[in-house]
Amino acid sequence: MYQLxxxxxxxxxxxxxxxxxxxxxxxxxxxxxxVCVQGENLDKLNMLVDFVEVKSAMDFVMDRDLDxxxxxxxxxxxxxxxxxxxxxxxxxxxxxxxxxIEVVEVTIWESPGCSVTYNxxx
Length: 122
Prior knowledge:
With 122 residues, the protein is an alpha+beta fold. Helices cover 26% and strands 34% of the residues. It starts with a strand and ends with a strand.
């Protein structure tokens, strides 16, 4: 089994309503995203999938819904957390990767030392 990982990032704002702390106020992050895909078979070039293909799918999702948006508004959720975003991004990628390739997990970093990983759904 091969696993391939691609990283990207976007800048966006959010808030967590009813949170007892600074995050209840609107604030921004440079969100880091890592997508892990896997599969067993290599193509005629001995690639699982081209990094460019996975990166293009990630860029499409980030540009369309996330980059320089207020995430609570763009995703229509009252409390936008890294946990919520990891699952949401996983599902977006799952619908864009094919040909025997599956999305295993998505990791979202809200800051350099804090991340959340959402694993493969069965």
